[in-house]
Amino acid sequence: MYIVFEGIDGSGKSTQSKLLKDYLISKGYDVELFVEPTDSDIGRLIRRLLQNPDARSDLMQKTFGLLFAADRMILMKKINDLECKNKVIISDRSFYSSLVYQEPYDWIKEINRYAKQPDLVLLLDMDLKTAVSRSKETDEFENEEFLSSVKEKYLTLARNSSNFKIINANNNLEEVSSDIKRVVDSVFDKN
Question: Are 2 and 81 in contact (CB under 8 A)?
């Protein structure tokens, strides 16, 4: 099972992915947790470039698109190997993040066509002001206007994809975690 957390920065993806990992381990599952960008050489380059003042320029958007796709292909090999060993894979972000953060959409979709489709996408939907105030990121993508556009793109993806479940991330930590566990348990019960 490949489970992905998506949502704007500050929505709680990192915290909730760790809580879900602990929960599934307590239920006897063998679980691996990943974060995009990864800690590969490409992932470290992405993190460094995200700090550039021109990170949202057209040229940098295309550069990020390629770098994220390359970083993701390295990760896909690991995920496929782990799934063959019946591990549950949880990822903090996936190619859906590239679809909503980078442009142009059709090109980003094309360069990610080999990325593995998650079995379940947990979209943490949160009020923009709260997310911005909670975000630890300090890059060019952390402002309400930009994140409003990203949030709308996520919600459109969720409406058009059967593997998405929207989680109200405005609730307190325990309520969000309970909602996630309920969704994940129902998916595991079906399989």
Answer: no
Q: Strand 2-6's sheet: what is its strand order? A: 31-35, 88-92, 2-6, 120-125, 164-168
Chain segment 96-149, per-residue pLDDT in tens: 999 999 988 999 999 999 999 999 999 999 998 888 887 666 555 667 888 999
Whole-number pLDDT of residue 178: 98
Count the residues in the chain: 191
What are all long-range contacts of 42-48, with beta carbons under 8 Å and residues at least 24 apart?
Answer: 42/67, 42/70, 42/71, 42/74, 43/71, 46/71
Q: Which residues pair with 33 in a beta bridge?
A: 90
Contact (CB, 8 A) for 2 and 189: no
Tell me if the pTM is above 0.85. Answer: yes
| C-alpha span between 170 and 124 (Å, rounded) | 9
